[in-house]
Write a structure and sequence with these properties.
This protein is of the alpha+beta class. The chain has three helices and four strands, in the order βαβαββα. The protein is 38% helix and 23% strand. A hairpin with a 2-residue loop joins strand 3 and strand 4. The protein is globular, with a radius of gyration of 11 Å. This is Glutaredoxin-like protein NrdH.
């Protein structure tokens, strides 16, 4: 499964999310929404207005969600 974290600089929830993923040994890619207009458009089309947005296979969510991260491990 591919895990992508759409993030922004100086985002506390983004940092917490990537740390939790790393702590569980999960591989993920981080995409900076401030540098990738296509990525920003994609997450906005999904209805998200806050970072991080995590896409893991067919599942996706916004914000720091330890419950969802734990389910991936």
């Amino acid at each position: 499964m591919t895990i992508t974290v759409y993030s922004k600089p100086a985002c506390v929830q983004c940092t917490a999310t990537t740390r939790a993923l790393s702590a569980r040994g999960l591989d993920f890619e981080v995409i900076d929404l401030t540098e990738d207009d296509a990525a920003m458009t994609r997450v906005q089309e999904l209805g998200y207005r806050q970072a991080p947005v995590v896409m893991a296979g067919d599942d996706h969510w916004a914000g720091f969600r330890p419950d969802k991260i734990g389910a991936l491990a």
